[in-house]
Amino acid sequence: MKTKEPLPTPTVTIERKNLDVLFSALIKNGYNVIGPTVREGAIVYDLITASNNMPVGYTQEQNAGKYKLVKHGDQSVFGFNTAPLSWKKFLHPPTLELCHSHRDRNSVTITTPKIEPQKHAFVGVRPCDLAAISVLDKVFIASPYTDVGYQARRSDVFIVAVNCGQAAGTCFCVSMQTGPGATKGFDIALTEIIEKDRHYFVAEPGTDQGETILKSVPHKEANIYELKAAESQLENTAEQMGRKVDTTNIAELLTNNSDHARWQEVAKRCLTCGNCTMVCPTCFCSTIEDVTDLSGDNASRIRKWDSCFTLGFSYIHGGSIRSSVMSRYRQWLTHKFSSWHHQFGTSGCVGCGRCITWCPVAIDVTEELKAIRSNEQTNPSTKSTKEKQ
Amino acid sequence: MIATLEQKKNITAASADRKPVLFRISRVQKDTHDTFTIDLEPPKGGFYFEPGQFNMLYLHGVGEVPISICGDPSAHDKLIHTIRAVGTVTKAMQKLKKGDLLGVRGPFGTNWPAEESAGSDILIIAGGIGLPPLRPSIYHVLANREKYGKVVLLYGTRTPKDILYRKELEQWRARFDMEVHVTVDRAAGDWHGNVGVVTTLISRSHFDPSSTVAMLVGPEVMMRFTVLELQKRGIEPDNIYISMERNMKCGTGFCGHCQYGPTFICKDGPVYPYPAIKDVFVKREI
């Protein structure tokens, strides 16, 4: 993590007891506040109205293939990291009706559902997830087509980011340069600080709207001591991070090693369940289901999340292009860390570690990438191009 | 360099968005035992596309499929699609009649360098259902015949009964300014034409490899061998264009299905200059 310059002056502190005023200010401004809650032993982003809806005092134990929500000693509001299902579910819903077709004798009418503007405030967006939202923006807005539904859902989102005061076992945002501190893309960024006799938040506005909302919450200008406390907390978090990815020329690394023996190795373990793609905050692939009523006169086109791990994903007449597990794992990892750069000018991975946590057989992308790099094979066709240049 | 969207012009009234625009079918014609052609009447304003582009065609309640546009790019009052019935949607489309409605989104994707190739010899090589996506280029070249050098069409199908556009092939073959060769993989005794893969036709065709633009569509294995053969004949890789096919759901780069190496076939393709995809072209299961 880069050490930041002392934060600019509008940064303020909010005492823990006043956190709920922030929520009521957002609600007063017409936002549906969505934040972390506890449900069935996991963190779930859902509608909240006050901090007592949140996982106060909880933390998560995460490792490859392991996730456990536990109570820890203090009263922290944000003592955990990311929820299994990211903010993607609000911006790019798992199922969505794209259009409706009505048949009446010899005529057909196609209509699209009206896109209702939504005013959502996302509270507790971690820096990696903030980066993931900006990745989704690149995918769905002007690339060169624009998903008008995504744009409408995205346009009125107020983001309260939370800098990470701890790293989860599977985090590697430092390697992906997305965290543990938020640098852009938020309206307000909070850092939670718990001291022996004081529990407060350092709050940095990122936009004018953020500044306006902060003004309506009891606050004090942050002093140098408080700013330093926030900064050193981020340094600690960065140091805690156990996993690393060497991103040097990573796009070329994967395209040059498409025949690497490691793909076969990982394919022996991969169950192609698609969990990694469902929890990934940037995986955007979808399919369409055509649904009709019993008369057949009313038909809907429903868009659903899809996964490149399914056999059907690459199906064209005659069979699936990627029939082996090897090719499907390779497609996913190569897309995420390599193709994405060509497609959207950014990495598809933000280092949140969800795919590692939720892999039922504990496949760890950081280990896979390390294995490929440690024993690089050169693809003769790409080598010759490079030599020509 | 990957073909860019700058090559695309005329994104028309037919919406690129999620809602298909309804076109009425003015004619349905059976081409072969499994292939048929439908003519559609565009709503007011006509339909504009570039040779090589495709549409997403939606049939009420059944589904949507990507199909190349195969009509004349200068005739804006008619949209033509030749479809092979191989899946659920295309088999249902086989039952369509004149007067029925079909949803259209498009046109999508990159185009053949038909206009850009003025001054060069044109070598068009099609395998099976690969001829329809090339037909708009043939129309364009023939309509502007004086701008091009030699024009050669090589077409291969599995059997004689799979040959599409027979009448047109005969008309084209009858022209003095166009060379047409047709071959089939296998045939009964009543076939008097060539037997063998389409690559065998290349050596007997007349074109100047140093100034030839080649456009290819067919099964991937056919295109792989054709590219090798063309390079052997001395055509520069930069002058070889290929149209690729993958599963597609959206046509706009959102669904992820049509990824081909680092590209999306729906927006970076379907037509690629060969160098843009040569690294993945030889890979299996990419």
Could you explain how this protein is built, in words?
The complex is a heterodimer of chains A (389) and B (286). Chain A is α+β, with helices and mostly antiparallel strands and 389 residues long. Chain A has two domains: 12-239, no CATH class; 250-376, no CATH class. Chain A has helices spanning 19-28, 88-91, 127-140, 148-155, 173-176, 208-215, 224-240, 250-256, 261-269, 275-279, 325-344, 354-357, 365-374, 380-388; strands spanning 12-15, 32-39, 42-47, 58-63, 66-71, 95-104, 107-111, 120-125, 157-162, 188-195, 198-205, 220-221, 286-292, 298-305, 315-316, 319-320. In chain A, the strands form four sheets. Chain A has an eight-stranded mixed β-sheet with strand order 3-2-8-9-10-11-1-12, sandwiched between helices. Chain A has a four-stranded antiparallel β-sheet with strand order 7-6-14-13, with no helix packed on it. A two-stranded antiparallel ribbon of chain A has the order 4-5. In chain A, helix 8 (250-256) packs antiparallel against helix 11 (325-344) and helix 9 crosses helix 11. Chain A is globular, with a radius of gyration of 23 Å. Chain A starts with 11 loop residues before the first strand and ends with a helix. Residues 380-389 of chain A have low confidence and may be disordered. Chain B is α/β, with parallel strands linked by helices and 286 residues long. Chain B has two domains: 5-108, Elongation Factor Tu (Ef-tu), domain 3 (Beta Barrel); 121-243, Rossmann fold (3-Layer(aba) Sandwich). Helix content of chain B is 17%, strand content 29%. Chain B contains five helices and 15 strands. Chain B has a seven-stranded mixed β-sheet, sandwiched between helices. A six-stranded antiparallel β-sheet of chain B has the order 4-3-6-1-2-5. In chain B, strand 11 (212-217), helix 4 (220-232) and strand 12 (240-243) form a beta-alpha-beta unit. The radius of gyration of chain B is 18 Å and the shape is globular. Chains A and B meet through strand 6, strand 7, strand 13, strand 15 and helix 11 of A and strand 14 of B.
